[in-house]
Design brief:
Elements (H helix, E strand, L loop, with lengths): L2 H4 L3 H8 L3 E6 L2 E14 L13 H6 L6 E6 L2 E8 L6 E10 L9 H7 L17 E4 L8 E4 L13 E4 L9
Antiparallel strand pairs: 1-2, 1-6, 2-5, 2-8, 3-4, 4-5, 7-8
The protein binds a DNA duplex through β3, β4 and α4.
Length: 174
DNA sequence: AGGAAGATCTACT
DNA sequence: GTAGATCTTCCTA
């Protein structure tokens, strides 16, 4: 997926990311995983996002779209992509993926980063131009998209910002 | 320097 | 269903 793909509102990118394939290359081995669950995060006026505070996370969310943002919480790393126009503070969280050519469980944001060995090293790197991790488009998009409120957040916005592939067995929750 | 909060996961009841 | 582990980041003094 090119930069133009990410250069839209977080909600749109989150929805369009479903079904695409995340390719993680480790020592020449390619692990492929289909994205099945995402969430959109905003900076300003989003009480769930730490980017509504000052700090490195907010700064990163203000960077150009396509930047990888890795956020650590409770001994887990969260994988995000910065979206929207520069200066907008928006990002999409990858909450769950479906393993295609390996077997570790990826039905949760912390689990997938562990299975794919994604850590702080990727913070601020570029997902549209990276040797070890990219997202490739998929034509197989004949599925229904489900919507819900975000999971695990203390204070959510009054809007459904979580998207998932309906009926998929690898989403973190129904 | 210290502390609290946080977008989680696992295990046990 | 509930509790506890465990770590990074940000805020305050």
């Amino acid at each position: 997926m090119n930069k133009k793909f990410y250069n839209r509102d977080a909600e749109i990118v989150a929805r369009d990311l479903l079904g695409n394939v995340l390719v993680r290359e480790i020592n020449g081995n390619k692990l492929r995983a289909r994205i099945v669950e995402t969430e959109a995060y905003y900076g300003d006026d989003d009480p769930a996002s730490r980017a509504c505070q000052n700090g490195d996370l907010r700064k990163t969310m203000l960077m150009r779209s396509g930047v990888i943002l890795v956020y650590g919480i409770h001994n887990n790393w969260m994988l995000n992509f910065v979206t929207g126009r520069k200066g907008k503070a928006r990002a999409v969280l990858i909450r769950a993926v479906e393993p295609l050519n390996f077997s570790e469980k990826c039905n949760g944001p912390g689990l997938l980063t562990r299975a794919l060995k994604i850590g702080k090293e990727f913070h601020k790197h570029d997902i549209t131009n990276h040797k070890e991790m990219i997202v490739v488009g998929s034509k197989r998009k004949n599925f229904d998209i489900g919507k819900s409120f975000r999971i695990g957040v203390k204070k959510d916005l009054p809007k459904k910002l979580r998207f998932y592939i309906k009926g998929n067995k690898h989403i973190s929750r129904k």
